From TrEMBL:
Protein name, entry field: Transcriptional regulator, TetR family
Domain HTH tetR-type: start-end pairs: 9-69
Keywords of this entry: DNA-binding, Transcription, Transcription regulation
Domain of life (superkingdom): Bacteria
Protein species of origin: Leptospira vanthielii serovar Holland str. Waz Holland = ATCC 700522
Amino acid sequence: MKTKKGEKDKLRVAILDSAIRYFKENGSGASGISGIMNHAGLTTGALYSHFSSKDELFGETICRELEKLEFQLSQTFKKEKKNALKVMIETYFEEERLVEVGDGCVYTALGSDMHRSQASYRARYEKYTEKVFQLFADCIQLQFPKESAEACYEKAMVLYSGMVGAMTMARTTKNLKVAHAILAAEKKHLIQSFVAKEK
């Protein structure tokens, strides 16, 4: 019996939601189709009703996650205005984002796997990354209106790359005290360097 379109769309979303967590926790290379689908509570065969391969599933999963990231950042920017940059930095370095890998930063968890993706997907990732950089640049521009757009974008690249790098380093150690120290130091540095001081 054929699945209705609405039900099929919901099932696709459920697979994507489950897969991103599984990929983040295990990496693409160590994630087999059976493991991915078992994690979603579905049979292996169900995958092929939505995706042609694990590579396609990975690519679509990453694109969806980056789209969600862009939306979340844009909503923070609209809501917080001049305070948005500080909120974004503080939110990124929250405790649960360190210990709950499945809910954490996609770049930190899967950056190297994204690099090994098919060229067509990498091009899509890069477009989303540019949008993320631009959102941070807009936040910086709002605080420092005399800065050029180019200067703000350059600072945004440095800022977000620093956030991702610090989280990556923190996750390499099993010593939580050291991990927390890395994140605290980077958060303090980024806020001091990129957030306008209140007058």
